[in-house]
């Protein structure tokens, strides 16, 4: 999916919501455990009930990997099931020496090899340029690079002072040499809305993937006010607050209500801040 | 495996060699492609022929993941097959918010969930403390944290000047608050032997996992001279130079010769520098 196509989806749906599929076998409603593939059955119903209100889905790879080969099969079926109109994100936080990152790219982008065909993958920057660029060798695919994450530990290294700027600002600047806004996005946590102005000064055009709204406590209006650019430039993720809104048989209906509520709030901010 | 048990293995075998199982379906000998599980068949023969000369095996997870569920099955069989006397490393470079790192820990440490039961996992430090500590919640398991990697891109961020020291020195210092030498190791590339003295001044007791000898050009004697501590404190990895020493039917025999040659060199350095 291209930058323009993504903006088109956002404009049409009045939504920049990404639904995080952090599907944990230990948390899904008990009645699903009787089905052949409880993880896929859960995701399928979540997708059916939320697709109208979001523009993106983000399976969190850890949750599938924790189940071994079966989890991987559930992931394949899930990615296959997501409508082509939705931007898919492998939230994998990968990154290794060039040779190995090339294999991770095969894993998430090359359907003939792994069965998976995501639009994008989240990548950790610590290992530098040659750990990131192999993902960009796959035409039309996106890298979503970690900049400032939403967790408490983000301050351990990301905010260190590096020659007058923070490390995350340095990551934003250096990585622009690897790809532009048409192929790269950045992860910026909703838990740090006051940093968005600083970030937009460095990357005015890029999309930002913003986790941390919902269970982690980020504020959607502040993120939208300080983070939005002229192409919206935001994908705001909510995972647990949507998919675990209920753990009964009404889980899909409750997920729909949560997703719809976020979409309606986003429609207001698109009018106000775009 | 404990610190003392690992040192015992090294002393007994006169080797601190780790064999990297970067097993690529596109590179293994053609005659294996007829077997049911070529990746496992290759690994099995490599393990049989090298086990006497090494103390550790390090499957590079990207290579298995690139093959989807089948790759994951080959990985399970491989880990199961590695003798219990050998320290196993999931070279996965994972790391995410606490909740998610906990799931990655299940993936690599909890056999009842994923089918895998590694002794250790490589972890990227960018997301800080709560991305690392969930792995340490599994008793007896190790975290091997990226410090200074062997690839060209390592200088993009790892060598940035952070308040008078490099970022990788900062990672070494800060992460010591999370676990000691009995539970944590560091990745330090063999391609930077001149840095080992600086690193040993910060982490005198820790084991260092040293990739980059062999295909990447690192010098084993320099690494041993500057990196060894009183418990050896080194696991030196070689992957491609051993496992792809031949791509004919004699691949296992050639791998054995390469591993044995490295072991013999290591025996000399153990006498000289320990």
UniProtKB/TrEMBL annotation, chains A, B:
<dbReference type="GO" id="GO:0006207">
    <property type="term" value="P:'de novo' pyrimidine nucleobase biosynthetic process"/>
</dbReference>
<dbReference type="InterPro" id="IPR011995">
    <property type="entry name" value="OMPdecase_type-2"/>
</dbReference>
<dbReference type="InterPro" id="IPR011060">
    <property type="entry name" value="RibuloseP-bd_barrel"/>
</dbReference>
<comment type="pathway">
    <text>Pyrimidine metabolism; UMP biosynthesis via de novo pathway; UMP from orotate: step 2/2.</text>
</comment>
<keyword id="KW-0456">Lyase</keyword>
<keyword id="KW-0665">Pyrimidine biosynthesis</keyword>
<feature type="active site" description="Proton donor">
    <location>
        <position position="93"/>
    </location>
</feature>
<protein>
    <recommendedName>
        <fullName>Orotidine 5'-phosphate decarboxylase</fullName>
        <ecNumber>4.1.1.23</ecNumber>
    </recommendedName>
</protein>
<dbReference type="GO" id="GO:0004590">
    <property type="term" value="F:orotidine-5'-phosphate decarboxylase activity"/>
</dbReference>
<feature type="domain" description="Orotidine 5'-phosphate decarboxylase">
    <location>
        <begin position="16"/>
        <end position="255"/>
    </location>
</feature>
<keyword id="KW-0210">Decarboxylase</keyword>
<comment type="similarity">
    <text>Belongs to the OMP decarboxylase family. Type 2 subfamily.</text>
</comment>
<dbReference type="InterPro" id="IPR001754">
    <property type="entry name" value="OMPdeCOase_dom"/>
</dbReference>
<dbReference type="GO" id="GO:0044205">
    <property type="term" value="P:'de novo' UMP biosynthetic process"/>
</dbReference>
<dbReference type="Pfam" id="PF00215">
    <property type="entry name" value="OMPdecase"/>
</dbReference>
<dbReference type="InterPro" id="IPR013785">
    <property type="entry name" value="Aldolase_TIM"/>
</dbReference>
């Amino acid at each position: 999916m291209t930058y323009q196509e993504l903006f088109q989806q956002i404009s049409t749906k009045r939504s920049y919501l990404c639904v995080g599929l952090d599907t944990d076998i230990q948390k899904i409603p008990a009645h699903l455990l009787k089905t052949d593939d409880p993880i896929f059955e859960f995701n399928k119903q979540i997708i059916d009930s939320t697709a109208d209100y979001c523009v993106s889905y983000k399976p969190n790879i850890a949750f599938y990997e924790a189940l071994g080969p079966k989890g991987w099969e559930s992931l394949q079926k899930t990615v296959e099931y997501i409508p082509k109109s939705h931007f898919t994100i492998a939230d994998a936080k990968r990154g290794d020496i060039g040779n190995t990152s090339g294999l991770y790219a095969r894993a998430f982008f090359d359907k003939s090899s792994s069965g998976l065909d995501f639009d994008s993958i989240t990548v950790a920057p610590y290992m530098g340029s040659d750990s990131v660029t192999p993902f960009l060798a796959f035409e039309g695919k996106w890298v979503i690079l970690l900049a400032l994450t939403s967790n408490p530990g983000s301050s351990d290294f990301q905010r260190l002072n590096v020659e007058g700027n923070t490390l995350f600002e340095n990551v934003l600047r250096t990585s622009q040499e690897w790809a532009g806004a048409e192929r790269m996005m950045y992860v910026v946590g909703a838990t740090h809305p006051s940093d968005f102005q600083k970030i937009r000064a460095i990357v005015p055009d890029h999309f930002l993937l913003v986790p941390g709204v919902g269970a982690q406590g980020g504020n959607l209006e502040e993120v939208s006010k300080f983070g939005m650019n002229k192409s919206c430039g935001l994908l705001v993720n909510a995972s647990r607050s949507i998919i675990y809104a209920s753990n009964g048989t009404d889980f899909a209906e409750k997920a729909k209500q949560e997703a719809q509520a976020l979409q309606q709030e986003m429609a207001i901010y698109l009018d106000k801040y775009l």
